[in-house]
Specification:
It is built from 5 helices and 5 strands, in the order αββαβββααα. It has 174 residues and is α+β, with helices and mostly antiparallel strands. A hairpin with a 6-residue loop joins strand 1 and strand 2.
Length: 174
């Protein structure tokens, strides 16, 4: 394993309903500031009844509406289905970008339920489950985690690199 350093960067984010587009821009901006291999993440909640909304704009919806308001957004719709995405963007050289997407289908609860997890975990019920992520134990959350799905794809990519490619990544700069 290689240690990874967390950098708090103030970077501009584009507005788009495509999480991959947001992550691609974000990782290149982060590289421009840091000048070392960079990994970034963004989350998207797609409410099917609302087209692609709120999508990657979800964090702003959460900030303004809170979890209660996010549930109420669908009160006048028959369709409460949603897809949650976690997208990780990696660039090693500031040119080529690889995106690793984790995705989970499910439903938005009628009202927030549970206090485990963070953010909007109390409103999303993964497909095949009765509980929201906020009601699940840590072990249950991990099994349906979109972050875990995306990070497993990243892990597979990193393991596929040759020793010389991995050495060229300048891990010490992270």
């Amino acid at each position: 394993g290689h240690p990874v350093k967390h950098l708090k960067l103030d970077i501009d984010e584009i507005q788009s309903l495509e999480v991959e587009e947001v992550v691609r821009h974000k990782v290149l901006e982060a590289y421009r500031h840091a000048q070392v291999p960079v990994l970034v993440e963004d989350i998207s909640y797609i409410y099917h009844a609302l087209g692609k909304l709120p999508g990657p704009l979800f964090k702003w919806f959460l900030k303004e509406l809170k979890v209660e308001g996010l549930c109420k957004l669908l009160d006048h719709y028959d369709d409460r289905t949603a897809t949650v995405q976690a997208a990780f963007g990696l660039t090693l050289d500031g040119k080529e970008v690889r995106i690793f997407l984790g995705e989970m289908k499910g439903q938005i609860a009628d009202a927030p339920r549970g206090t485990n997890g963070f953010g909007a975990d109390s409103i999303f019920i993964p497909e095949g489950h009765e509980k929201t992520w906020g009601e699940m134990s840590e072990g249950e959350q991990i099994q349906s985690s979109v972050r875990r799905i995306g990070l497993k794809k990243l892990e597979a990519f990193l393991e596929s690199l040759s020793e010389s490619e991995a050495h060229e990544m300048r891990w010490e700069g992270l």
